[in-house]
Every structure is written in C-alpha cells, then in structure tokens.
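I would like you to help me understand the sequence and structure tokens below and explain how sequence relates to structure.
___
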Amino acid sequence: MMAQRLVLRQLLSLTSRTLPPQGPLAPHGRAFGTSAACRSTFNVQDGSDFQDRVVNNPKPVVVDFHAQWCGPCKILGPRLEKMVAKQEGKVLMAKVDIDDHTDLAIEYEVSAVPTVLAMKNGDVVDKFVGIKDEDQLEAFLKKLIGA
C-alpha cells in the first residue's frame, strides 16, 4: 500500500510539471481581454451566433465583412475597431470572414470586400464598400448611434 502511494505521488508530481498551464490564468492564453476593443469587437462564429449577437442585439452593431486575402480589409479592420472602441460600448463590431461565412455574405448581398453594414434592431440602416478614413468612419458611427 505504501509503495502504491509513493508511485502515485511521483506520478502526480510529474504530470503537474510537464503539462502546460491551462485556464483563464495561463500565461499566454487568450481567455479574456481587458481592452475596450476586445469587449466591443467579436468574430462571428456561425449563422446562429450572427442571429444572437448581431440581429437580436439591442445595441447598434457595425458588421465588417472581410477576407484574409483582402489588402484594404487589413487597413480598414483595425481602423474601424479603434473607432468603435472610442464609442465606449454604444456600438459593437462584428467581424465576418466571407470565406468562412459565404451564406451570410450572400444573404446580405456582399459583392466586394471590405463591406461594412450598420445594423440597428436587426435591420441594415447604412452601408459602405471600400476603405474610409477616420473622419468618415467617425461620421458613419455617430449617424448609427444617433449622436
């Protein structure tokens, strides 16, 4: 019995040293974010996620339809995220990769990227295609928020 306990203790001490840390306190984990951009921006996972977090959201939502291979998207995305974060939670930003969510791109008639929709109470209330500067983005967001 004593020998079994000793072996078990050695085994347990080994596994705790060899397994990488997991959970919300893992040193390099991305379990939670603390910046305003992290709280106000999210990636759409699927159609039901889009329905729950965009269409049924009581807050206005900016939807960024983008693609990994799209050069202008790589410029507009971070710029738009920064501008949305400045609105301090009055508006949210949903990111939709058109290659992963072709059905949503078709449903919302996205024919080019980047395409950005402004949605309020489940309805598209404004839209633009292409790249915009910060002043244009701010005006787009203020119109959506009603400020």
